[in-house]
Amino acid sequence: MPTAPPPAPPAPAGPADPLRAVAVGLLNLSGLGLGYALVRRWGLMAVCWIATAVLLVVALPADPDGVPGALLVGYLVLLLLAAAHGAAVGLRTRLSLLPGALVAAVLGLVLLAVPAGGAVLYDGARDEATEQMLLDRLDRADKLVAAAAERPFAASEADYRRALTAYDRLVKDHPGSRAAGHVPDRVRTYYATVAAPYTVKDYCGAVAPLKYLRTVPGSVARKTVGDLSGWPDDRLATSLYECGAASLADGSSEWTTQFADLLSTFPKSSQAGEVEPAVKTRVDAAVKAVGGSEPCAAVQRLDSLATDVQELPGEEAGLSGALDKDAGRATASARTGAYACGVDQYRDGSYSEAVTTMNDFVKDNPHSGNAGRAKKIAIAAEVAETVPAAGKKLPTTASGGSISVTIKNDSPDDITVLYTGPVTGSLTLKACGSCSSYSLSSTLGLGFKPCSAGKNYPQKTIRLPVGTTYFVHKSRDDSGGSPASDTAKLRSGYLYTECAYTTNYTY
Description:
The chain is of the alpha/beta class. It has helices at 18-28, 34-38, 42-59, 69-90, 101-111, 113-148, 153-173, 178-194, 196-199, 203-215, 222-225, 231-250, 255-265, 270-273, 275-289, 295-310, 320-347, 351-364, 371-386, 440-443, and strands spanning 403-410, 415-420, 425-429, 438-439, 459-464, 467-475, 484-490, 496-501, 503-504. Helix 6 runs parallel beside helix 8 (178-194), helix 17 (320-347) packs across helix 18 and helix 17 packs across helix 19 (371-386).
């Protein structure tokens, strides 16, 4: 049988050739072990190929983080060792495959472009990978803004802040990147998205997001915001005014907060200048409403307006004088309007409220032309609290009459006597020093005779017209229990006596 030829003997050693050593070393620096191929060290060449393959598997595709530093250092050390070892071997080993050492050296120099070019290409690929990573971050921030726009601002503010932070980091940390170059446009979209309620004229809903946008320049790099720093100001001033004006017109109390913010934040704005005319218009409407169907509600609005207007910070806006005048007019109108409110309460049967309202009116407006009748209405309302029939008609300012009525006090207490009917009035009588309270049981007996003849009782005589008059007697200091009442139908030709007394319960 034929036998395999013996392996080729290694190249015979020759005289030392420095150029040949350099050529083998240079060829090994290419990372392909080509220097070992020239001196027929195939195993060592395979090691170089394997090392290069491992490097390529780890490095590709390019990643922003690059090749692990330990692997790169190990590979460079391997190349240097291969170059040094190859040079040592090539110093005395004849070359194969190439005609001479000079050609091999030139080829080695040329092939150095392979690792150098690979490094350059890899750096470019790594830069592109970094750009794509940054563009992905930009895209995620854009999606965060778009999702936040679907929810109310209070629920989406945290997402808006996260997106803004992402934009800001792109500008700060990667200022030359393509992603950073897109940030100015994205931030403009961001501002418009956050302020979307303003665009659709939801002015109250726009206040919070616009206030937030005013804080943005203080929390990010100046480059991130660009020329948008003052973008929210006029929009916020408009929103504060429009929201406040709508609240003022609706009778809500929220307008004071909106107008106060406007006057303190943008005191010189045109919107701030519109605050006082809006307040004046509302005061005018409330004053007019006093003569309408709900005068008490109008008076209440005037009281609230007077208080709220006085609290507005109008100094910087130069509105203090005008606002003070509006508040004063609201106060004065509320005081005078209390008369119409009291009349309305009386007619509605709210006698207790009418008493309080009319007494306050007389106290606040002692010189008013309605003060006299207000006193009469307060008296009639107090009588009607005990005798509802007394409140069927609104009392007049009439006084006097043709019938004499003597009122006596058979009571140990000072008393007040209120009466209403064709004439309305009141009087007080001092206590009867020799009198005492009657027991309830005695008042039910046949012999019960208060204000009996032959005794000198404190008394006063008044003159009243013909008709039904309602009397109420009560302790002057309200300590004598429940008021007593009497209904008298007065006719001509008679003298009448009205007796006041007190009773107590005995068991």
